[in-house]
Design goal:
Helix content: over 70%
Structural class: mainly alpha
Pfam families: DUF998
Low-confidence stretches: 213-228
Strand content: under 5%
InterPro entries: DUF998
Shape: globular
Keywords: Membrane, Transmembrane, Transmembrane helix
Protein name: DUF998 domain-containing protein
Mean pLDDT: 85
Largest sheet: none
Order of helices and strands: HHHHHHH
């Protein structure tokens, strides 16, 4: 990989990291400052209206960009295109578009017409959730297939099991799991897993920076040159 390409990859990774961090901070602060909403009972979409809602709307948009960037970078773990990598990239791109639609749709239409309850909001939100949940197990298998990423495979596998469990509990409406609290825990875990993967990419890029000139023409995951997804 030449230096301009390395800089572009690093820039995408940092954009994804900043999008994830901004979302977690903005959503977390709103839980503490919105006294008109019950953080355990109200889902996160309720915070897209009222005081501070513009910050959360921006956070959704940035997280959508982070999802798309993360999918593009994770696809490049292998030095050649693969169905598994392209599936992860496509799923995270769909999730990113879904988040953008949730944020913009909730700002453009009154809550009683669209958001709560509203077909457009629910469709785009569920598409985003479903796309990320589908990407998780595929990416966990991809981590396990690449040398140097096996330790991330354990994290991704455990995160996948937790996220799928929380998603089913949320959909089933289990009484002991508050609807708002369960949804926010699932969202925080999904975003944290993406953030961890992006930080892992940045760590490996930093390790390769010193010898990038010697590796011109290779991919940023050249340690996987002999492994297929």
């Amino acid at each position: 990989m030449n230096n301009p390409d390395l800089r572009r990859v690093r820039g995408l990774a940092w954009a994804g990291v900043l999008g994830c961090v901004f979302f977690l901070v903005a959503a977390g602060l709103l839980q503490l400052t919105r006294s008109d909403l019950d953080p355990w009972q109200h889902t996160l979409s309720f915070y897209l209206h009222g005081p501070g809602s513009l910050w959360l709307c921006l956070a959704y948009l940035l997280l959508g960009v982070a999802m798309a960037a993360g999918g593009r970078l994770l696809c490049r773990l292998a030095p050649w295109p693969s169905p598994a990598g392209q599936a992860v990239m496509a799923c995270l791109a769909v999730a990113g578009v879904g988040l953008v639609c949730v944020a913009t749709g909730d700002r453009l239409f009154p809550p009683d017409q669209l958001s709560r309850p509203g077909l457009f909001h629910h469709f785009t939100a569920y598409c985003a959730f479903a796309a990320v949940l589908l990407a998780l197990p595929v990416q966990a298998l991809r981590f396990a297939a690449h040398p140097g990423w096996q330790r991330w495979a354990w994290t991704a596998t455990l995160g996948t099991l937790l996220c799928w469990s929380l998603a089913w509990l949320h959909v089933a409406g289990v009484a002991w799991l508050p609807r708002g609290g369960g949804q926010k825990l699932l969202i925080a875990l999904l975003v944290s897993l993406l953030l961890a993967a992006l930080l892992g990419l940045l760590h490996r890029l930093a390790a390769k920076r010193g010898n990038s000139r010697d590796n011109a023409g290779t991919t940023f995951s050249s340690d996987a040159n002999h492994h297929h997804d």
